[in-house]
Amino acid sequence: MAATKPEPTQKATPEYPSAEIGQASRGPQKKAIATPTRRQAEEARRQRISPTLTPKQAKARERDAKNKARDEALTKTHALPANTLIRDWVDRRWNVGEFLLPVMLISLVFSLVVSAYWWPPAMAVGMYAVYALVLLFALDSFIMWRGCRKQLLKFFPNGSLKGKLGYAIARTYLMRRSRQPSPRVKRGSPWMWPNVPEPDPVKPKAEKTKPEATKTKTETTK
Q1: Under 8 Å between Cβ of 74 and 171
Q2: Alpha carbon of residue 142 to chain centroid
Q3: Is the Cα torsion angle 132, 138, 144, 146 positive or negative in sign?
Q4: How far apart are the first and last CA of the chain?
Q5: Where are the domains of the chain?
Q6: Contact by Cβ (8 Å): 187, 93
Q7: H or E stretch covering 107
Q8: Residue 36: per-residue pLDDT
């Protein structure tokens, strides 16, 4: 019998991959990432829910949470109608308290400089001026609160006045530009509360009358 010639093997090319390459691609392949065990999966889940933080990160998170809670509490406090009335009452008048801190600082620096170089008793004079300004602030705060308390009892007869005096005084010694929420009434404006402009009355629409049809020439001319 004639010997059969072996079939020529085909070289592996991009168009004709070899059989070995095809068999290797069809065989089982190893995963690039090993499947985590049950213990590792539970540990990863705990880290997602409550991650382990360093002391610095824990302090930063606690500080952010406190700031957020404080901002929410201030927003709720400012939104109360009684506090809105207090802010409008304080913002519409001139208050001694808003000039208290700047004048005290200027008086202290001025008295120190003058007493050191020119006139030694200037320090005592400056202190007496500060005391007089504090007394004037107390008198102005008393007058402010007397009027504000009257308005609170008028509009909120069943409301509590607890904490309202401190809220009003805390706003009086702040300069107008630094007050939050910002003032919504002008200084010296007449007292109207609630300070909500009344809507313009709706005027009824005038019905359009159709022009009468012009008479024809035959009707007008005889």
Answers
A1: no
A2: 32
A3: negative
A4: 135
A5: 53-178
A6: yes
A7: helix 100-117
A8: 75
What are the distances in angstroms from CA 183 to CA 65, 89, 151, 154, 178? 29, 10, 18, 22, 10
pLDDT in tens, 96-128: 999 998 888 888 888 888 887 888 888 888 888
Write the DSSP string, 160-183.
Answer: --TTHHHHHHHHHTS-GGG-SSPP
Question: Could you identify the residue written with the tokens 């929410």?
Answer: 72
Residue type, position 163, single letter? G
Residues 6+ apart with CB under 8 A from 11: 18
Task: For the full predicted model, state whether its pTM sits above 0.85.
Answer: no
| Cα–Cα nearest to 77, from 10, 1, 163 | 163
Angle at 181 between CA 175 and CA 185, to 5 degrees: 75
